[in-house]
Design a protein that fits this description.
The protein starts with 6 loop residues before the first helix and ends with a helix. It has helices spanning 7-16, 19-27, 32-40, 46-50, 56-66, 75-108, 119-136. Helix content is 70%, strand content 0%. By secondary structure, the chain is mainly α. Helix 2 crosses helix 6 (75-108) and helix 5 (56-66) packs across helix 6.
């Protein structure tokens, strides 16, 4: 059975949605009422939406069972399911990219191993270079 929302519930759900998820779902032409159904069910951030399920088949089943969106029903619903799957795929890729960027940023702040120099040897080299420069002038 499809989740029916009142206009007030749609407005409240749309106000909860994160801008990045709104942008992705809008770019895939997902109707606002369908978006509101996800937001109302607390899938209102990129990370939450990307975790609907681990696989496309799982997301497809979730859409069919929980939201009554069966791609086999008619072409209009099949198109909506295809767009939702494409949006889900994009969110999973975006979350993976964000996680990789956070890990890289953390790694950049770790102290790196620096080869130790031998101060007496370095001092002798600098002294020798200075002497060579002073003799050549």
């Amino acid at each position: 059975m499809a989740l029916a929302l009142t206009p007030e519930e749609v407005d409240a759900a749309m106000n909860r949605a994160s801008s990045d998820l709104l942008s992705i779902l809008d770019s895939h032409l997902i109707p606002l009422v369908t978006q509101a159904r996800f937001y109302h069910l607390n899938f209102h951030t990129l990370r939450l939406f990307s975790n609907l399920h681990e696989t496309k088949a799982g997301v497809r089943d979730l859409l069919r069972v929980q939201l009554d969106l069966d791609g086999a029903a008619n072409l209009e619903t099949r198109s909506l399911v295809a767009r939702l799957l494409a949006a889900w795929d994009q969110t999973t890729k975006r979350v993976t990219q964000e996680d990789e960027m956070v890990a890289a940023a953390k790694a950049a702040n770790f102290p790196r191993a620096v080869h130790s120099t031998d101060p007496p040897s370095l001092r002798r080299t600098v002294t020798t270079l200075r002497m060579d420069l002073s003799l050549s002038s």
